[in-house]
Amino acid sequence: MAPKRTSSAKRKADADSDSPGLDSDAEGSTKARASKKAKLDASEGGGAAKKPAKGKAKAKAVASGSRSGGATDATGGELAPNGQPTNKAIPAGLAFPPRAADVVRVAAWNICGLAAAEKKGFKAYVQAEDPDVLVLTETKVNDVPADPSLAARFPHRYWAIASKKGYAGTAILSKVKPLSVSTTLPGHPDADGVKGRIVTLEFESCFVVGTYVPNAGTGLKTLDVKNTWNEHFTAHIRALDARKPVIWTGDLNVAPTDKDLANPRPNWNKTAGYTEAETRAFARILEGEGQSGEGKKDEEKGKFVDVWRAMHPDARHYTYFSYRFNCRGKGIGWRLDMFVVSARLQERARMCEIRGEVYGASDHCPVVLELAGSL
After folding, report:
1. Of 271, 323, 273, 333, the residue nearest 36 (C-alpha)
2. What is the CATH number of the domain that holds 217?
3. CA 41 to CA 47: how far, in whole Å?
4. What value, to the nearest 5°, has the Cα angle with vertex 13 and ends 11 and 19?
5. Is 212 a catalytic residue?
6. Is 177 part of any domain?
7. Domain Endonuclease/exonuclease/phosphatase: where (predicted)?
8. Smallest Cα–Cα separation from 369: which of 136, 177, 178, 133?
């Protein structure tokens, strides 16, 4: 019997609503996934999608750079409709503009498994970026890696490893020795569940916090777990900020606004990473609790800034693209990886970018921040 045909509208809805990857052990039943897709189809109106006239479709494709003859990136590759590269492997000869001598560079990347990423260009990226601090999430390592090249580049390496094998994992690799190191989330009731999700380094002038924030799961079945994490992490980052400024980065597993995912409407309150509970928790961190005192620095204390969004207020660029449905080529993604800094650090930010061309070693792209001064 021939397989049942799927309507073009349903295929489009599935692709448009394609959600960020779940934690590596998260599994949803076929029934749950089918139910979710059906709901998303309904939110899109259902029925067969109308096909535009060939001439109009071609003109639209060329204008958006999604077909041959459209806009191209620095390597000559085509750009997706949202203006990001469409390459599916890390390009040869990867290079970035040199940095100024008086800045510190911090990079963060969800590598979706260190062992797999190393076979697909991980080290080429690290060499090209050459950050002072590198935050890695979803490392999936079971033991501290013994890698001479990483050891030579980063003398100080701290790995948070999950209890479950091949799951989660967060690391911070640094050229600068920190004053203190922590891999726990104070007050969290599930210490075992926190393992592999957070590393906090204290430096002379600031803290660097790397996190692989829990995912709310298929059908939002672990949203309560995410809410508990958010409650205790908010208290943690505020306590750190009361002592000295904070740089928070990694895979934060939230799209803060409707500009941070390609298709917000069908995903709102249906898909992990874009619910009212998650976006509101993120907004509360940015807003702070209000501080008494005199002067700008006192007013800024307790508040945080999403640096990339502050520098690119209208851009719709993303850090995660599913391998399914040609999401990369269509520019259908989510911005989940970011830098959030204490508001009083914002004036030191010189650059914050998504390395959109670095794709294929993982389904996430790295993000990078440069700050004037030192750690």
Report:
1. 271
2. 3.60.10.10
3. 9
4. 110
5. yes
6. yes
7. 108-364
8. 133
pTM given for the model: 0.84
Q: Which two tokens stand for residue 155?
A: 């003398």
Is 224 a member of any domain? yes
Residue 292: which domain range? 103-372
Residues contacting 267, CB < 8 A, separation 6+: 17, 19, 40, 261, 274
Q: Tokens for 18? A: 């394609």
Q: What span, in angstroms and rounded, lies between the C-alpha atoms of 303 and 291?
A: 9
| 359 part of the active site | no
Annotated catalytic residue within 251, 260, 306, 337: 251
- 63 domain-assigned: no
106: nearest Cα among 136, 137, 131: 131
Q: Which residue among 158, 212, 274, 359 is the active-site one? A: 212
CA distances from 298 to 173, 202, 295, 302, 344 (A): 32, 21, 6, 9, 9
Residues at the binding site for Mg(2+) are: 110, 138, 251, 253, 363-364
pLDDT in tens, 136-164: 999 999 999 999 999 999 999 999 999 99
Kindly give, in sequence order, each residue whose CB lies less than 8 Å from that of residue 128, ignoring residues fewer than 6 positions away: 94, 95, 96
By the 8 A CB rule, do 214 and 100 touch?
no
Residue 59: inside a domain = no
What the block records as the tokens of 185 is: 């989330």
The active-site residue out of 188, 236, 317, 364 is 364
The yes-or-no answer on residue 251 being catalytic is yes
Q: How many domains does the chain fold into?
A: 1
